[in-house]
Specification:
By secondary structure, the chain is an all-alpha fold. The chain has 8 helices and no strands.
């Protein structure tokens, strides 16, 4: 029991360290968009980037929580992992909603032009539109009268799409992830996600 408690605390600590380290990226790997901002606009833009990174990390951890890894089941129990998965989903959704509000707020809520060069931003908008029904159906599945098998099929089909959109958006929307450690770490996270999805899909 004591050993499990120690492992739980270790797991939570590792998660905290990863989240904190990821949130430092806008400070140590500034994108050029920060150079032209001052005062409150600069603060809002940086905060928006941080919330975007928080959303990314939480989405990646959703896959880990749902991966049914034996070591996690032994340390946390399947019931606890399900609860964490559900709570994490709500938190990341709130974070995902705050992210574009702060980004647009830094430009005084002037929406970016409908031009091809802004395709990464449009991917982000589409991702948010996909994420909304995904979370709502997951949280209120029973209240909406959706049977478990239908929900599970919807969940399993849409989850990889969300992850793919997330990586496309993150890799291209900010130059912070074009090279260096942010690029390598995000690429490594992508490979881990592919492994976890393949592990679940293969018999």
């Amino acid at each position: 029991m004591k050993n499990n408690s120690f492992l739980r605390l270790t797991g939570i600590f590792v998660f905290g360290v990863v989240l904190y380290a990821a949130c430092t990226i806008p400070f140590y790997f500034e994108s050029p968009s920060m150079y032209y901002k001052t005062g409150m606009d600069r603060l809002m833009l940086r905060s928006g980037k941080i919330f975007g990174i928080i959303t990314t990390v939480l989405l990646l951890f959703q896959v880990v929580l749902a991966s049914r890894l034996q070591v996690l089941n032994q340390v946390f129990t399947a019931k606890k992992l399900f609860q964490y998965h559900r709570t994490n989903g709500l938190i990341l959704f709130v974070s995902a909603m705050i992210h574009p509000i702060l980004i647009l707020g830094a430009d005084h809520f002037v929406f970016f032009p409908f031009e091809s060069r802004y395709w990464p931003e449009f991917i982000g908008v589409f991702l948010l539109m996909v994420l909304l029904p995904f979370v709502l159906l997951s949280v209120w599945q029973k209240k909406l009268g959706l049977n478990y098998n239908t929900w599970k099929l919807f969940h399993k089909t849409l989850a990889p799409v969300i992850l793919i959109l997330l990586f496309i958006h993150a890799m291209n929307v900010s130059r912070s992830f074009e090279s260096g450690w942010p690029f390598y770490l995000l690429s490594a996270a992508g490979l881990i996600m592919v492994f976890l999805f393949a592990r679940r899909a293969l018999p």
